[in-house]
Design brief:
single chain, alpha+beta, Glutaredoxin
Length: 221
């Protein structure tokens, strides 16, 4: 069992203990989904999972974009710092697109970052996700991720105690893992970012031009 002091002082505690289980949920990252998954229907894609959906935009928008992302994925960070702001201003904020972000952590550290976003509160989820992507190089690829990760979380209102409590929440970690497993096994997600645009799957960090090519036909009909 990781102690409070040990957790906060050791980067390996985050990577090995606080956000990983003895079952090795993330070990090997063996994706079984694509081989067995069939093309999902929109109805299947939109069925709620164990966690509340994190969505922006008009629920009745003609286009729904679902993104599966990992917080330690550099391609996801590139999408969120370049394409996403334009997508949001042009399409999400104007009621043309409903955007849903679903967690697909590729490693324990990514799971921990998503846990913090979930614990931050409903109105802070997306702002914290975007901040974590913007500053990804400062915490995701360093030898000791705890101090920079806590510094970002602290700006969102976390204390040392709430930071530790969040990352020690086994139920939340299990639910994130269920979201990931469902995406892999049911929807064929095996990499990040993966997008579904009105049910059609796209892999990789799409540019705004690539997204608009998919969005525009639905807006003209």
């Amino acid at each position: 069992m990781i102690t409070r002091r040990g957790f906060l002082l050791s980067a390996s505690a985050l990577a090995i203990g606080a956000v990983a289980t003895a079952r090795g949920q993330f070990a090997g990252l063996q994706w079984l989904g694509e081989a067995h998954a069939q093309v999902p229907t929109m109805e299947e894609l939109l069925k709620p999972g164990p966690l509340a959906e994190k969505a922006l935009g008009d629920p009745n928008a003609p286009v729904t974009i679902i993104e599966y992302a990992s917080m330690t994925c550099s391609h996801c960070a590139h999408f969120h710092t370049t394409t996403y702001p334009v997508l949001k201003s042009r399409y999400i904020d104007t009621g043309k697109v409903r955007y849903i972000l679903r967690e697909f952590p590729l490693d324990p550290l990514a799971a921990g970052a998503f846990m913090l976003a979930r614990c931050a509160g409903e109105d802070k989820y997306f702002p914290l996700v975007e901040k974590l992507f913007q500053q990804q190089k400062d915490w995701a690829f360093v030898q000791n991720p705890i101090p920079p990760l806590f510094a970002i979380a602290k700006e969102a209102g976390f204390t040392e105690q709430s930071f530790e409590q969040c990352l020690s929440n086994q139920k939340l970690l299990d639910d994130l893992e269920e979201v990931r497993q469902r995406a892999a096994q049911k929807f064929g997600v095996n990499s990040t970012p993966t997008f579904f645009v009105n049910g059609k799957i796209f892999r990789g960090a799409m540019t705004i031009e690539e997204l608009e090519k998919q969005i525009q036909p639905y807006l003209k009909s």
